[in-house]
Specification:
The protein is 35% helix and 14% strand. By secondary structure, the chain is of the alpha/beta class. The longest helix is centred in the middle third of the chain and has 16 residues.
């Protein structure tokens, strides 16, 4: 599958990787998706934990019966109402897709209903979600797009499933395809503000009402001074990894990309301040014809605020990819 989108050109005043990255915070979209209608769905995971995921189901004002259900997955410390999630949801709704904005385990409104927590490797939750979807929503098929950590989880799932997935197409945007390298990049001095903000949000999210934690886990979360320490002290031992290194190695999407067997758009900017562009530019994308890389030189992390349209360029590309599939 090929894709020939218009080139990405940054829009004033979002010049440079950092301003592109921060634009979603400085200029968030309206939370109201009207005239499209939204309702709450819940998914009991049936894995013995008692955890339940919540999602927003958005129905288009002008449905296109040929369009598949589009599942949208947020990134680290994101939710169904993150700016980039609302942006892509509106764009897909305007094109006639029904959209499911998923809250991962322990994220956003799912937090009080979950004792557990999401992480980059928890692809089994996405697999269970697909099994629980009402049949009337999936008659025209399913596509999915994941952002940042949500994109990493989606790529891992796709590689695990191969041809067995019910998805007909997928996309990742700004996914950390090597978790250890990305974490080291985040801890660089130039990213200290991003790192400080992200780690603080992770601690709040992990210890909020609903989380089931031992005293030792809570202490490990609160005492962590880096994301690496957080993963080493909490995520790794809690979910069966020897340490953060083991977690990052076993769950990094690079391990799973060769086994993806459905058309998958892999979109990331080479100036992403969080994810080294060399991870993407140095990968042999020709080795798997199911993968469609799109690697503009600029765009920041989940940015892509370009000229010619107020909607993010990445949203237009993803929607076009799904339509052409």
């Amino acid at each position: 599958m090929s894709l020939d989108p218009p080139p990405f050109t940054p829009r004033f005043p979002w010049w440079g990787a950092d301003l592109q990255t921060l634009a979603n915070h400085f200029s968030p979209p309206a939370a109201d998706l009207a005239p499209h209608a939204s309702e709450r769905l819940s998914f009991a995971l049936r894995d013995g934990t008692g955890d339940t995921l919540l999602a927003s189901l958005d129905r288009p004002a002008a449905p296109n019966v040929a369009r598949p259900l589009a599942i949208v997955v947020h990134g680290l410390t994101g939710t169904e109402d993150s700016a980039y999630i609302l942006n892509i949801a509106r764009h897909l709704l305007d094109g006639g897709h029904t959209v499911l904005r998923l809250n991962l385990r322990g994220a956003g409104p799912s937090r009080p209903l979950c004792g557990g927590h999401y992480y980059a490797g928890r692809s089994q939750d996405f697999r269970r979600l697909l099994e629980l979807l009402p049949k009337d929503l999936t008659r025209q098929g399913i596509v999915a797009v994941g952002y940042s950590l949500g994109g990493a989880m989606l790529l891992k799932y796709l590689g695990e499933e191969g041809t067995a997935t019910p998805l007909s197409a997928a996309a990742s945007v700004s996914a950390p395809i090597d978790l250890a390298v990305t974490c080291r990049q985040m801890m660089r001095p130039r990213n200290w503000l991003y790192h400080y903000h992200m780690l603080g949000n992770m601690k709040v999210e992990a210890t909020a009402e609903g989380a089931k934690l031992t005293a030792g886990e809570r202490a490990g979360i609160l005492s962590a001074r880096t994301v690496w320490q957080y993963d080493d002290a909490f995520i790794a031992p809690r979910y069966g990894f020897a340490d953060a290194v083991d977690y990052y190695e076993r769950c990094k999407p690079l391990r799973f990309l060769p086994d993806i067997r459905i058309p998958t758009l892999v979109l990331s900017s080479l100036d992403d301040p969080w994810i080294p562009g060399a991870l993407y530019s140095g990968y042999d994308w020709r080795a798997n014809k199911s993968l469609v890389p799109l690697l503009p030189s600029s765009g920041g992390h989940v940015g892509f605020h370009g000229t010619g349209d107020r909607r993010p360029w990445s949203d237009r590309v993803v929607a076009r990819f799904f339509a052409d599939g």
